[in-house]
Amino acid sequence: MVVLTGNDLTFHEMKRILYAVEQVTASEESMKAVLACRQAVEKIVEEERVVYGITTGFGKFSDVVISKEDTEELQYNLIVSHACGVGEPFPEIVSRAMIVLRANTLLKGFSGARPVVVDTLISLVNHRIHPVIPQQGSLGASGDLAPLSHLALVLMGEGEVFYNGERMPALQALTQEGIVPITLQAKEGLALINGTQAMTAMGVVGYLEAEALALQADLIAATTLEGLHGIIDAFDEDVHRARGFVEQEDVARRIRELVKDSQLVTKQGEMRVQDAYSLRCIPQVHGASWQVLHYVQEKLTIEMNAATDNPLIFDGGNKVISGGNFHGQPIAFAMDFLKIGVAELANISERRIERMVNPQLSDLPPFLSAKPGLQSGAMIMQYVAAALVSENKTLAHPASVDSIPSSANQEDHVSMGTIGSRHAYQIIQNVRRVLAIEAICALQAVEYRGVERMASATKTFYKEARDIVPSIKGDRVFSEDIEKMAMYLKGYDYPIYEEMKG
Where is this cross-link: 5-imidazolinone (Ala-Gly) (predicted)? Predict the structure, then answer.
């Protein structure tokens, strides 16, 4: 059970909630803060004070005063009018992350929602009821308004959900689990949708997948190093300590550990003096991607525990301030950075693939074909890797450099952070397929060299991966192999996974 407090949610806990489907609860202290803030909102309504989003309209309508008799209708209208997202829904795991993050931010006690709103969000998580949330439609400022409105619809018994492997009306799933839909009161609609939880949820899921990919990139690169008789001297500890980047040193250490008992890697001068950059510079390139990952993790961790609502309520309601914490710029930059850092893992991977399949660059069979000429072998797999890498270059264009004014120019600068997070996730899927292609080629290369001469760690990988993709004895539909290997990489924790991290 993960206890949400609004202040200290970690990636480790998110991983448990998302992948181990662990249940959540709210701390007693945080719920007291929620109740106290709610009482402040009710006092504002009763006194008919003019406070944005509580007794006024929204956006450009902030100067329109709303009577206390109309507060429920105001909140309902807000949600249904803003629930206009389009396109394919976010992956179910992202929807789950959104609910958790929204509950966590309400638990900070600055948003003014009733405890029942938090309880209902937590019930959705614990009963695995995940809102169907279209991916497109957020500008990433004023919060992720359209996506989060689709989440809020479910609390009201409207909209659609994923439940027990099916897509169905929200009310049907809520009824089956005995969850009572809520009627939103003053401020609650705004409290649910004014925030960055769509881009942050997408970023969290993307980050967790990217971290696994970065470790897998090291493992696959180590296998390629063996397949190409790579020179291990370039990974010497002194070389990387001389530069001083910790992440670079970590990658070099992992590669050394992975191939420590290999009879396939070589020393400089044995076969050649030095390797091409795609082999020799693995620590420098992969290490730089790890620097990006660490930056992204830091920013997402802050945002996971941030108050991103507007207005925020302090001092028992005596201090209510309309600010801009809903602006997604910090996460927009982080997502754009993530795109570049992860895309580079595929860029260098594709070059290693080329070295394995190109007979002018190694002594391996041309295109790793069993019968070169009669059979094409891995020839077009390299094409696919090149196409994915090229597509990533387009997707890696920063979303955050764009801004389009909205709400009659009241909201005249936006982050486009949700677009950045979605594109980052697309890049991650492409990178995984490129690494899958490298893995298939590397398995074939080391098989040609002699599996018995492999390092213990990479040999374990070889044996397990061969259950997924068999040896290339002849041409076949390699698309199926690529997808199988990609799914294997997505869902598998290697026995050496934690050791690699350390």
Answer: 141-143
Structure tokens at 410: 């009241």
Three-class DSSP category at 209: helix
Residue that terminates a domain, selected from 140, 175, 195: 195
Residue reference for tokens 């001389």 = 242
183 and 210 in one domain? no
**Ramachandran angles phi, psi of 25, nearest 5°:** -145, 165
- Give the 3-state secondary structure of 234-302: HHCHHHHHHHCCHHHHHHHHHHHHHCCCCCCCECCCCCCCCCCHHHHCHHHHHHHHHHHHHHHHHHHHH
Q: Known catalytic residues? A: 52
Residues 220 and 124 in one domain: no
Write the CA distances from 328 to 99, 206, 413, integer angstroms.
18, 17, 11
Token pair recorded at residue 236: 């010497």
Does residue 397 share a domain with residue 297? yes
| CA geometry: angle 148, 307, 340, nearest 5 deg | 70
Tell me how far CA of residue 331 lies from CA of 51, 197, 246, 399, 400, in angstroms: 28, 10, 24, 11, 9
Query: Which of 195, 229, 251 lies at the terminal end of a domain, its last residue?
Result: 195
- Picking from 272, 273, 286, 448, the residue whose alpha carbon sits closest to that of residue 351 is 286
Q: Assess contact for 131 and 144: CB atoms under 8 A.
A: no
Amino acid at position 52, single letter: Y
Condensed to tens digits (0 to 9), the pLDDT of residues 290-314 reads: 999 999 999 999 999 999 998 999 9
* Total domains present in the chain: 2
Q: Which tens digit of pLDDT belongs to each residue from 417-432?
A: 999 999 999 999 999 9
Amino acid at 88: E
Range of the domain at 298: 204-501
User: Strand 24-26 relative to strand 2-4: parallel, antiparallel, unpaired?
Assistant: parallel
Same domain, 436 and 367: yes
- Per-residue DSSP letters for 108-172? TS-S---HHHHHHHHHHHHTT-EE--EEE---SSS-SHHHHHHHHHHHTT-SEEEETTEEEEHHH
pTM as predicted: 0.94
Q: What is the largest CA-CA distance in the chain?
A: 85
Same domain for 178 and 216:
no
**SS3 call for 368:** helix
CATH number at residue 412: 1.20.200.10
